[in-house]
Amino acid sequence: MLLNTYDPWKFAFSTEVDFENLKKDSYGIIGVPFDSTTSYHSGSRLGPIVVREASYGFEKYNTNFKSDLDCTFYDFGDVNVIPGNCEATCKIVEDTVNELLDLNIKPIAIGGEHSASIGVIKALTDKYDKLTVVHLDAHRDLAFDFIGEKYSHATVMRRAHEFGVDLVQIGVRSSSLEEEEFVESTYNIRTFKNNEVHRHMDAVEYYLTTVETPIYLSIDMDVLDPAIAPSVGNPTPGGLFTSEIEDVIKALAFKEVVGMDVVEIATDRLGESTAVSAAKIVYDFLSLI
To answer: Which pLDDT band holds residue 6 (cuts at 50, 70, 90)?
Structure first.
């Protein structure tokens, strides 16, 4: 088994892990049950288990995309996190993703708070000369630090930007003045705020098709409207619909997507709508990519 992982459950339709016969260039799920920097609604450490459970509610045929979930993908279990130590946990996630990359497996991380993405993105920026992060979120997550901490759910994309990625932020509707000034001061952050997505989804889709670098897709579940996904770390009104998430995934279907995450599922209740929606996003991604 991979160093630093354990096996609590498996995502529906995943292939049994046989390290001697892994299919190259496939996807591998890891859970990151960590929420120690959560500043509002805690509980996302249970996200990986409830998302996996919710995955068993779907049929293998995707009626919206008219496709079978017939790709080979694996579920490698959960990362052994260090509660209370975000930086050390991000390093463990980075090491785990590097092991996946050594096996020619592309990562899908289920969280857990958004800080988990720091470790995944760091590993990918070490592998690829250039990376674009397509970031779906109600918030920019571009704070230099949060309450004095550089490793936090609120600083994820600032750390990623420091790693050298280009950013495409979709669904944003809450940020600080400092974050807005930072975006204005740099050249490689493209923003589609929530109202732009609602009114001009075609522009979002077109822009995504023009990205020429490898892509990492990062989805904070608070990008969805709280009426759809209420159990997140920082719910914010005015969010996206599930159909708009599907449109983003469809726009990326023929791009080089080298990994993804779905994070901030803060519930301990099986069958809760946020967990079901998160499982559906992973299911849709695997049905198309």
So the answer is: low
